[in-house]
Amino acid sequence: MKDLLGLLTATYGPSGNEDPIRELIENEIKDYVDELSTDALGNLIAVKKGNGTGKKVMIAAHMDQIGLIVTGIDDKGFLRFSNIGGVSVLNIINRRVKFKDGTCGVVSYESEIDDIKKLTLQKMYIDIGAKNKEEAAERVEIGDVAVYDAPMFASGDRLSACAMDNRVGCVVAIEALKRVKESDHDLYFVFTVQEELGLRGARTSAYGIMPDIGIALDVTLTGDTPNARRMAIKLGQGPAIKVKDSSVISHPMVKNLMIKRAKEANIPYQLEVLEAGGTDSGAIHLTASGVPSGVISVPCRYVHSGQEMIDLRDMMQATDLLVAILNKDL
Amino acid sequence: MKEFLSKLIEEPGVSGYEEKASQYVAELFSAYCDEVNTDPFYNVYGIKRGSGQESAPRVMVAAHMDEIGLMVKDIDDMGFLRFTSMGGVDQRILLTQEVTVHGKEDLKGIVAALPPHLLSAEEAGKAIKMKDLVIDLGLPADRVRELVEVGDLIRFNSPLVSMQGSFVNGKSIDDRAGVIMQVALMKELDKLKYQAEVCCAATVQEEVGTRGAIIGTYRLEPDIGIAIDVTHGDTPDAPKDFTHDMNKGIVIAMGPNMHPGLTQRLKDTAKEYGIAYQEEVVPGMTGTDARSMQISRAGVPTVLVQIPLRYMHTTVETLNMDHIKEGARLIALFIASLKEGWQEWLTY
Amino acid sequence: MVDLLKELTEAAGVSGNENEVRDIILRLAQPLSDKTYVDRMGNVIAVKKGTGSGKKLMVAAHMDEVGFIISGIGDNGMLKFRPVGGIDQRVLVSKRVLIGPDRIPGVIGVKAIHLQEPQERNTVIKQRQMYIDIGASSKEEASRLVKLGDYAIFDSSFLIFGQDKVKAKALDDRVGCSIILELLKDRYDFDLYACFTVQEEVGLRGAGVAAYHIEPDMGLVIEGTTAADIPDVPDHLKTTKLGKGPAISFMDYSSVANKDLFKQMVRTAEENKIPYQLKENVSGGNDAGRIQQSRAGVPTIAISVPCRYIHSPSCVMDLNDYKNTLLLAQKFLKGCEVR
């Protein structure tokens, strides 16, 4: 699982440009599913049929990542950009970023700014080392998107890389998909697009699927770093079962079932009350006449930065929990 | 009606956890309805079938039954609870409120913060932030840990109190008063001849984004939507433009979110029967279920009836009970006026 | 074509009260279409049956414009009002408005500079402090002419000036409406659902409803978009420029353009030698967001006519951009295979 995570976090796939990551996941799972398709928005939908007695379950993990989209190239060859998803100034200053074709650049800002609090993305740029506009235009076009370039490193069980949000969820989905063998349910594993832009892929794919139950897999924040914003989630204490965030209040029935399965299988878990942020279940649960939904989260530090840190055990236990849920009654 | 309201506001129904409230509402509705259903999200639908045939309209009347509240987000070493809000709680009202924490058992608690004599002058002048407040259960830490976990709900203790005249105050009157208006509407309808199929939906999760109305309207597929909610009553400190008289009748909303023809018809009905009403102009979408009802599926022409309410989102929400009865009568008469050719009223 | 644009931009159509525009569009679209109807939200849909596939292409422009709604009538006969849609409050002072179906003239007033404290002259006048003066002397007099909930528009006439420039209110998005009326003159392989939407300016509320019942296979939105090619705006924030042709969007806050359609649009422009520009900024949102997110998802793209001073009484565009946007849309639809 660790290697797969390393591969996934290093693969390009910002919101709206998910082709490379989709192809990788497709190859990884195609031998394990009954049906595989890509819908109008680019969601990858993998179906494992049940025995006809179970429910229709949508398991969603978004495969997109945040990024920087080029909006202009100036005469000297510097690139101006806007954000794809939740990009904060502090996280990108002097970071290395890369484009789809491997072109690398450094993000910096207009140096006359003396107060970093006043810095906005409009006063920042990407330097790809081009000497002038023409040279830059040969390598990058307006509308191209750069992502953090930060390969994974391990320190014991702790793993750090860009795009843990949400390649961790993708790995959990992929592993569960491979391991679930005896489920009664029709399982729709959906690797969604454009979550970082407002849960867009989940919204349309859920409508297309019309599931009975929705389970999203994503990362969540932690409160275990020095003077952190208070939150009862720690790295290494097990996967988090979401109670609420700003997009969804997990359906009590789904949440309680998750807790029950975790207890039965002796899987450690934490309860998550996330005060800001949302995930795919926010869109899924409001689909059509409503889809009871919950979320399994992997705790993650420094979310939306170039180095997002998780604990390998949390990810593995999240998979165990998902498999335990899908193998039994819903 | 006051008795119903008094009981209803005691039923737990913080957004996302409306099961208990929904049971009480379903029971309340069942005495006056042909059919009562509850969906998996605890929206309750009380259905009354009029005398009309297939061609009669289906009218959805929505009022939300969820209430704002708090949720445990962390338990500290001393056994004090940290919490977050469910819905838009005014953090300035919280200090020293009495609350119930719904743990393994119901526990009484007090919202607390650093006492004033330990504050600097500068701090004392600032509003206290929710993140700096705690709940004191008066229990040892290990006992708290046994009984409470992250995600448990917290509700305010503030039962209904009768004031002068028809005024009452209490918590969660936003929008439980609307649900009581639905009951009054059902009784009014029994006095009238009407053709429509009337579905009173007591909706969930309005306070966190009209979520119950989104799925409930999709489910019902109504021809016409009527939302009942509260709006601001007049107080000396609020601008007159944005508040309404507590004695001059319910408030009919106007603006893009409301269907102009139906809204006019609602006003005409009020005039015809001598029912007092006030008007409110909302320039964009409203903060009510009407917001989501209007754009459900292929569109639902929607109107919005509001009850003036003072001190919204506090534990002492104050309202004039007369408005519940008058509003119910107006909506019933409006529904009864939808006869053959009702489609004409939905045009632009 | 200029006459059409004049008629459309001078009509009143504040979000939620698009009646005048709707009537004009119905009148003009009926003879060009196989079927026209108004849906339950107030959107106008004109259907032009195709010659082949039976696939549905929804082309959308919004009828509504930003404006005002009357929210109070004071004892002195002055009207309180609130903006409908996003209006820069700095624009409002000393503008003429027309209120309600009878177009009662009024001005947005504020006390004269002589009566202001020195520090007031440098602060923004807040919208809530403003009022509309219709010359009425009492509440009774004003109430005879204006009702609560009446909508008001900027008083601004269509003007051609400078070199091929047009000034009008509501170019966003009557240019789109006008272009779609032209597109209805042709017949295509697919069924064309020309959709004139309501309430875009108050949260893209009409388009989602229309897309739900049309169930299109593809969406094309035609908009008026921000051009900030004026002094003191850094190059990278100009967004679009007048006279450089239609703006093709790769992304805004409501949607990311469908990749295939984006490439196809650029190719269409290049093959037909139509000048075009990319919308070089990520800002705003439009009906494309709702169409793309309808039901199980719809491939969607937006093209726009650049307009300066958008959401004001004096929007400015270049007639050549308008013509080229129409041309690009025509060529795109002719060459378009809807799947």
Which helices and strands appear, and what pairs or packs with what?
The complex is a heterotrimer of chains A (330), B (348) and C (339).
Chain A: H1 2-9, H2 19-29, E1 35-38, E2 44-48, E3 56-62, E4 67-73, E5 79-84, H3 89-92, E6 96-98, E7 104-109, E8 124-127, H4 133-139, E9 145-148, E10 153-155, E11 158-161, H5 164-179, E12 186-192, H6 200-209, E13 213-220, E14 240-244, H7 252-264, E15 270-273, H8 281-284, E16 293-299, E17 308-311, H9 312-326
Helix pairs in contact in A: 1-5, 5-9, 7-9
Chain B: H1 2-8, H2 19-30, E1 35-38, E2 44-49, E3 58-64, E4 69-75, E5 81-86, E6 98-102, E7 106-112, H3 121-124, E8 134-136, H4 141-147, E9 153-156, E10 161-162, E11 167-170, H5 173-190, E12 197-203, H6 211-220, E13 224-232, E14 250-254, H7 260-272, E15 277-281, H8 290-294, E16 302-310, E17 317-320, H9 322-336
Parallel strand pairs in B: 3-12, 3-13, 13-16, 14-15
Antiparallel strand pairs in B: 1-2, 2-12, 4-5, 4-9, 6-7, 6-9, 7-8, 10-11, 11-17, 14-16, 16-17
Helix pairs in contact in B: 5-9, 7-9
Chain C: H1 2-10, H2 19-29, E1 35-38, E2 44-48, E3 56-62, E4 67-73, E5 79-84, H3 89-92, E6 96-99, E7 104-109, E8 131-133, H4 139-145, E9 151-154, E10 159-161, E11 165-168, H5 171-183, E12 191-197, H6 205-214, E13 218-226, E14 247-248, H7 259-271, E15 277-278, H8 288-292, E16 300-307, E17 315-318, H9 319-334
Parallel strand pairs in C: 3-12, 3-13, 13-16, 14-15
Antiparallel strand pairs in C: 1-2, 2-12, 4-5, 4-9, 6-7, 6-9, 7-8, 10-11, 11-17, 14-16
Description:
The complex is a heterotrimer of chains A (330), B (348) and C (339). By secondary structure, chain A is of the alpha+beta class. Chain A has two domains: 2-65 and 162-326, 3-Layer(aba) Sandwich (Aminopeptidase); 67-148, Peptidase M42, domain 2 (Elongation Factor Tu (Ef-tu), domain 3, Beta Barrel). Helices cover 27% and strands 27% of the residues of chain A. Chain A has an eight-stranded mixed sheet with strand order 1-2-12-3-13-16-14-15, with helices on both faces. In chain A, strands 5-4-9-6-7-8 form a six-stranded antiparallel sheet. A three-stranded antiparallel sheet of chain A has the order 10-11-17. In chain A, strand 14 (240-244), helix 7 and strand 15 form a beta-alpha-beta unit. In chain A, helix 5 (164-179) packs across helix 9 and helix 7 (252-264) packs across helix 9. Chain A is globular. Helix content of chain B is 26%, strand content 27%. Chain B is of the alpha+beta class and 348 residues long. Chain B folds into two domains: 2-67 and 171-346, 3-Layer(aba) Sandwich (Aminopeptidase); 70-156, Peptidase M42, domain 2 (Elongation Factor Tu (Ef-tu), domain 3, Beta Barrel). In chain B, strands 1, 2, 3, 10, 11, 12, 13, 14, 15, 16 and 17 form an eleven-stranded mixed sheet that branches. In chain B, strands 5-4-9-6-7-8 form a six-stranded antiparallel sheet, with no helix packed on it. Chain B has helices spanning 2-8, 19-30, 121-124, 141-147, 173-190, 211-220, 260-272, 290-294, 322-336, and strands at 35-38, 44-49, 58-64, 69-75, 81-86, 98-102, 106-112, 134-136, 153-156, 161-162, 167-170, 197-203, 224-232, 250-254, 277-281, 302-310, 317-320. The longest helix of chain B is centred in the middle third of the chain and has 18 residues, at 173-190. Chain B is globular, with a radius of gyration of 21 Å. Chain B contains nine helices and 17 strands. The model of chain B has no long low-confidence stretch (mean pLDDT 95). By secondary structure, chain C is α+β, with helices and mostly antiparallel strands. Chain C has two domains: 2-65 and 169-334, Zn peptidases (Aminopeptidase), CATH 3.40.630.10; 67-154, Elongation Factor Tu (Ef-tu), domain 3. In chain C, the strands form three sheets. Chain C has an eight-stranded mixed sheet with strand order 1-2-12-3-13-16-14-15, with helices on both faces. In chain C, strands 5-4-9-6-7-8 form a six-stranded antiparallel sheet. Classes of the chains: A alpha+beta (330), B alpha+beta (348), C alpha+beta (339). At the B-C interface, loops of B face strand 4, strand 5 and helix 6 of C.
